[in-house]
Amino acid sequence: MPKKQLYEMHLDFLRSHDKEIFDAIQSEKKRQMEGIELIPSENLVSQAVLEAMGSVATNKYSEGYPGKRYYGGNDVIDIIENLAIERCRRLFNAQHVNVQPLSGSPANMAAYYATMNVGDTFMGLKLTEGGHLTHGHPVNFSGKLYKCVQYGVDKETETLDYDAVKRQAMEVKPKLILSGYTAYPRAIDFKAFREICDSVGAICTADIAHIAGLCAAGVHENPVPYFDVVTTTTHKTLRGPRGAVIMCKQEFAEKIDKAVFPGLQGGPHEHIIAAKAVAFGEALKPDFKEYAKQIVKNARALAEALMSSGLRLVSGGTDTHLMLVDVFKSKNLTGKQAEHALELAGIYCNKNTIPFDTRTPWDPSGVRIGTPVLTTRGMREKDMKEVGGFIVKALDNANDEAKLAKIKSEVKEFCAGFPFYK
Ligand SMILES: Cc1ncc(COP(=O)(O)O)c(C=O)c1O
Question: Is-catalytic flag, 236?
């Protein structure tokens, strides 16, 4: 776990240079510190990550790869990028790493571009059951450029039925199968996916954006060593800057690198790559394992607190950092109403569909919550009981703005006990 060391955000020059942006950033920091942040795809980065992101590495153009750039003056940038690659390789036990993808969606685009031809068929999980837009949704490039046959979860258990996925794969014969999700609270059996892919001759890929920190720490099965291609964002449980990486077996290395550059991107963002290297360095330290274990312990404690107050959780709980609360069934609130009420109480989450949702993604039946930020702030299981109490109280008073304002001041007081940025 990170020590109770307070991080600074250096904006001294900005304060006099651009007061409007300075004030807005200060207000955002205040919001982050005074509220309970439950969005499972967010985290708080260290001062070292912030400093690397704010460094002069942003000034450099470095199209190409270390040792093979299309611009001069890249000796130092090569050191930075090679450090990021090497640390990421060690962290995930990867054969090949590309640290240049700008974010999770372009990383997925590059992974598909490298492994499939336009029009090829692949399988990914439905958005409404936990998949991401880039996993084959019709409004996204992934559903427009490729033929995506989506799999779902079991109606009874609301979890993956690997036999059903296998049967579907045998019928569909996809070129590629993607696992790894956005809103799936249970552990993923990556070995089962490898077996399914082998049995139908599909390229075996995962998008571990959400659980990457857990995989790196050995708290969740890590698919990288035996999957063909794995993408991840670096800013979720992995606790780095906004961005992504692609890890793959050596046989896909050249195709992946070519797909990222020159296939899809121009100049890499080397200040972000420097910050990725810092975050990977932090994740290689022993206390990162403790942090990752604590995320899951906290999620279980929060799940228990919510369920014991009568809230229904999709699949009856969580094995990871996140859970889906069926607020429609539990409290007769839509996801949108619940998200709004919680926000008025200083508690941040996002509305989310639940499996077999009868409502729309814009106003679904659930909210998605998770524990990475609270864990980074140093909260433990006993604190999750309090957090659960705040959530339930806010949902019970969803139409009473005065009560929600009172909860917000209690939340602020509670959060003051877990400072992070000065
Ligand atoms: C599983 C998964 N993949 C990809 C992405 C997209 O990442 P980005 O928002 O960085 O494009 C997300 C975003 O939440 C995600 O959850």
Answer: yes
Distance 106 CA to ligand 1 centre (A): 9
Q: pTM of this prediction?
A: 0.97
357 class by beta-carbon count within 10 Å (0-12 exposed, 13-18 middle, 19+ buried): middle
- Residue among 134, 135, 215, 233 to mutate when testing ligand 1 (max atoms within 8 A of CB): 233
**34, 42, 51, 63: which one is catalytic?**
63
The predicted-structure confidence for 229-279, as pLDDT tens digits, reads as follows 999 999 999 999 999 999 999 999 999 999 999 999 999 999 999 999 999
Active site residue 257: no
CA distance 261 to 64: 7
Instruction: Map out the domains of the chain with their CATH numbers.
Output: 53-283 (3.40.640.10), 296-415 (3.90.1150.10)
What is residue 319's predicted lDDT score, i.e. its pLDDT?
98
Count of C-beta atoms within a 10 Å radius of residue 31: 12
Say whether 63 is catalytic. Answer: yes
Q: How does residue 5 score in pLDDT terms, banded at 50, 70 and 90?
A: confident
The residue whose CA is least distant from atom 8 of ligand 1 is 104
Catalytic residue among 60, 175, 186, 236: 236
pLDDT above 80: residue 2: no
Pocket test for ligand 1, best of 42, 43, 105 (most atoms within 8 A of CB): 105
313-372: pLDDT as tens digits: 999 999 999 999 999 999 999 999 999 999 999 999 999 999 999 999 999 999 999 999
pLDDT, average across residues 377-406: 98
Residue 1 has pLDDT above 60, yes or no: no
pLDDT at 3: 52
10 Å Cβ neighbour count for 269?
A: 22
